[in-house]
Amino acid sequence: MLYIRRAGLMLVALIIGFVLSLVHLPIPYLMAGIIVSIGCKLIFNDDRLKWPKMYREYALYVAGFGIGVKFTEDTWKDILEQIVGIGVSNILMLGICLVLSYLTYKWTHEDYKSCILGILPGGLTMSMLLAEEDESYNPNIIMVMQVIRLFGVILTVPILVIMLFDAKAQEAGMMAAGAGSIPWLALFVLSPIGWFCAKKLHLPTPRLLGPILITAVASVFLGGVQAPPGIMMMLTQSSIGLFIGTQLEPERLSKAKNCIPCVLVGLVVMLLISCAMAQFMASYYHFDIITAFLALAPGGAAEMALAGLSMGADVSIIVAYQLARLVLVNTTVPFIIKLMVSKGLA
User: Fold this and answer.
1) Is-contact 242 7, C-beta < 8 A?
2) Is residue 23 helix, strand or coil?
3) SS3 letters for 114-182?
4) Where would I find the H helices in the chain?
5) What pLDDT shows up at residue 48?
6) What angle do CA 110, 114, 120 make, to 5 degrees?
7) How many CB atoms lie within 10 A of CB 250?
8) Chain segment 160-192, per-residue pLDDT in tens
9) Reported confidence tier of residue 197, pLDDT bands at 50, 70, 90
């Protein structure tokens, strides 16, 4: 019965995703997964409605592989040329997040450390791991703030990109199209190896970053890798969307309702700053504005990269900026919080 329910959720998500794709919305199946899962929670009021994390992990394997095939020798050169811009833009965004977290703390009187972890872009996994290790954090506040931020980015960024930058989504088949000497079935070998290596190296989000890196290397040095079929990318988007949607529970929202306005205001501020930085970066480094905005948007690496794939943006640049931010968040924020605690500031 449980598997039938999950299959039904996936089927409905695919149908709604197809409808959204007809109106040329970016990442239609990811958005559909979120819409379906939230809709079912509200309609049936069932807290048992879950999408297994394992399914999301498998989807990240495919997403990482699909992103990695877009890397070429030229994209590595572009990333190296922009290393200063990648670092400065992400340090600036981290500073803005720390200011917003302080304002949230002052407004809500919630735990300051939890407010910091709750507002960090792309820091959902790290935030929850830290909360599990230290009982002084408020995991409910962190989860609600992070999930609302992620919802807001996924649901608003594609619309903003279309309205502000006249972007157009590609068909799923076009999005996954690509030729190479290595067949796409290598996904089932490369992605697990990439995950294993990334995990051993203690890299952030190894199930996404590992497949991206190993597939990118294979694509550059072995003559290219074929992209996975369009239907596989549809299932991948839907699975990630269903998992994200089931994370937000009405009970959590009611316990953290004081934080919701602050999260929404903070999200608007970060999106406006991302737009301004994107204009500058696109002009300075001479790449398209859609790529720049998705690279700097306060979302997750997987979600923004999938949006880039669906709009024909330079996904390698998006991944470079988003993963650099993820590394920065994972390496500096725990140290910053410890320093603030030692100084009696948190």
Assistant:
1) no
2) coil
3) HHHHHHCCCCHHHHHHHHHHCCCCCHHHHHHHHHHHHHHHHHHHHHHHHHHHCCCCCCHHHHHCCCCCE
4) 2-22, 28-44, 53-68, 73-81, 83-108, 112-119, 124-133, 139-165, 172-176, 187-200, 206-221, 230-246, 250-255, 260-285, 289-296, 301-310, 315-342
5) 64
6) 125
7) 11
8) 877 777 655 555 544 444 556 788 888 899 999
9) very high
CB 233 within 8 A of CB 169: no
> Would you say 22 and 149 are in contact if contact means Cβ atoms under 8 Å apart?
no
Q: How far apart are CA 215 and CA 220, in angstroms?
A: 9
Query: Amino acid identity, residue 70?
Result: K
Cα separation, 65 vs 181, in Å, equals 15
| Chain segment 235-287, per-residue pLDDT in tens | 998 998 898 888 777 676 677 777 888 888 988 999 999 999 988 988 888 88
Q: Considering the entire predicted model, what is its pTM?
A: 0.77
Find out whether 210 and 203 touch, Cβ atoms under 8 Å: yes
What is the pLDDT at residue 173? 46
CA distance 216 to 70: 7
Q: What is the dihedral of CA 146, 210, 217, 121, to 10 degrees?
A: 10
Find out whether 247 and 38 touch, Cβ atoms under 8 Å: no
Q: What is the maximum span of the chain, computed from C-alpha positions, in angstroms?
A: 58
**Cα distance between residue 108 and residue 71, in whole Å:** 44
Cα–Cα nearest to 239, from 37, 24, 46, 26: 37
Tell me which residue of 234, 231, 253 sits closest to 38, measured CA to CA. 253
Q: Specify whether the CB–CB gap between 93 and 321 falls below 8 A.
A: no
162 vs 164: CA distance, rounded Å: 6
